[in-house]
């Protein structure tokens, strides 16, 4: 009899695993609403399944539904209080909620947010994401309700002790936010020297763009391209050239290369490369080529407002 009961459980177990795999696929494809609906139905029959609760919380969090996400992550903490990742997600959802509410309400949430992240660190001494969360939280939180650069730097130092690259990136982020661009640049460059990942290069490129230094941004993207050989970086060079009206010939050549070698893995649709080419030709007062490319962009993605706005500007040439 026990053997028969065990066999009867197998289809249910496989069904549960299949649903979770489907949800993970949908989340990966950014189909958050669809994932939410399926998992809500699934949890009606499996209300205490941690993995299902976590996936539903993730579906809510991706959509910015912080109250709903907090509810699910709190369930996870109650079910498994020794799981560092559950405390991290719970604190993260509360932290995002605190950034959206008024200062008085946020003030009452600060301790709970910090305690959740600290608990994650206590349970997992090398939990990088929890420390990153504390860095970002204390940088973004207004000083009047507990925001503190010094506290952010404390956790950045802890990150550096675990991972040099994460520590350098965290300090670059803090100093950039604190309007100390020279220190920010120094630490972003240290991250590149130590790690050299695409993310490291991207952080420095974004910094240069925010500092209105497009030539340095292009130079950094070129260095990244030399190391990583990614077609997507051709688009990034063209984007900076088009947006800032600099190095237009280089931007044009890179965008043409991007279109020639484009695959789905590049991420940015070809329409956006045509849009950037249209911008470049507009800067060069070449109305015919600009119209040609903006029309291609519109034909591929007809619902992008900025494409039609660009065409209006081109027609005025």
| Percentage of residues in helical conformation | over 70%
CATH architecture of the domain at 230-317: Alpha Horseshoe
Helix/strand order, N-terminal first = HHHHHHHHHHHHHHHHHH
CATH top level of the domain at 230-317 is Mainly Alpha
CATH superfamily name of the domain at 230-317?
A: Tetratricopeptide repeat domain
- The coarse overall form would be globular
Low-confidence stretches: 1-15
In round numbers, the mean pLDDT is: 90
Major β-sheet annotation? none
Structural class call reads mainly alpha
Report the portion of residues in β strands.
under 5%
- Give the total of beta strands: 0
**Distance between the first and last residues' Cα:** 83 Å
Total of helices: 18
What is the CATH topology assignment of the domain at 230-317?
Serine Threonine Protein Phosphatase 5, Tetratricopeptide repeat
- What is the C-alpha radius of gyration, as a whole number of Å? 24 Å
Structure summarized in a few sentences:
This protein has about 325 residues and is mainly α. Helices cover about 80% and strands about 0% of the residues.
Relevant terms:
Serine Threonine Protein Phosphatase 5, Tetratricopeptide repeat, 0% strand, 317 residues, disordered N terminus, 18 helices, mainly alpha, single chain
Tell me about this structure.
This protein has a domain at 230-317: Alpha Horseshoe (Serine Threonine Protein Phosphatase 5, Tetratricopeptide repeat). It contains 18 helices and no strands. The model is unreliable at 1-15 (pLDDT under 50). With 317 residues, it is mostly helical.
